[in-house]
User: Fold this.
Amino acid sequence: MNDLGSIPDDAIPAITTAWLSEAADGIAAAASLLRAGQVVAFPTETVYGLGADATDPGAVARIFAAKQRPRFNPLIAHLADTASAFAEGVFDEAARSLAEAFWPGPLTLVVPAAPDCRVCDLARAGLPSVALRVPAPALTRALLARVGRPVAAPSANRSGRVSPTSADHVLADLEGRIAAVLDGGETPVGVESSVIACLGGPPRLLRPGGLTREALEARLGYALAGPESGDTAHPVGPGLLASHYAPRAQVRLEATSASSDEAVLLFGPETLPGADAARARLNLSPAGDLAEAAAHLFSALRQLDGVGARVIAVASIPERGLGEAINDRLRRAAAPR
Ligand code: TXA
Ligand code: MG
Assistant:
């Protein structure tokens, strides 16, 4: 182990990664592998997750090893339905209200773990809290119901890299390191779930994501607090590391022009001076639709990274609605490493 508690590359013997279709036999095979303690990537509405039986520390250890994820960063436990999620945590009024409004959907609630919570300590990184989520797609819920246990799953990418929105992205990062990938096509939301902590104080938005702040605050009837609580009794979750979602190229934000050796990421009808002569250019949504932009964000970063430019210049994107999550991911991608 290195000082981050992650596991070096060579600790994992190469295995054959099975591709499983979304037909019934694919779901059944994925569920059997998960019940047997193997690691299987599966689609959700946000991004592909790298799943393992959350009740089995040996299985969860395989997730950390495959991703090379630092062990202080806890995982989200995925459940087939709201009632199953309620059994794993202690929900205050705000948590219950958000769960009832937005599950199944792209929302993760961090709540105190129930006394008989089945999510193992390793998945929770030893914290007294647990992160719970009920994903929306019928395929995902059928898989989770068939497993019949909470399934721990971070995004199915190597730690610190761009999250996967297709089975191909998963294989590009993890082929030979995981038992299987269940292919459900492209994930429709494209950015990870919104993470909200309900730990006694006012609910705090730990990570902006696929549910907009506007929708969450409309349900609560008040503004969400930020991630920092200033409250030592309820420390903020780890894992909000600055550099994350990092392509190989450098990312330059708020670009107002582009040079010929850069790749360019545009948004909306306007282009940037110099963009036509750049190495490559993609537009997240020519119509300026933030949901469409979120859905395309990670695959666009992967594609532009693939052209080998040293820098990806990104036009500015409005901070409203899903723009908050898009800009959060872009700022992390641009953070120094
Ligand atoms: O959309 C998603 O959320 C995807 C799909 C697969 O569900 N999953 C995902 O997982 O993005 P991951 O591991 O990449 O992000 C989980 C986030 C991390 O920032 C982690 O630190 C935080 O949730 N988290 C998990 N448990 C926590 C806890 N007990 N307290 C605070 N933060 C927690
Ligand atoms: Mg992730």
Observations:
- The pocket of magnesium ion (ligand 2) is lined by residues 154-155, 163 (CB under 6 Å).
- The radius of gyration is 19 Å.
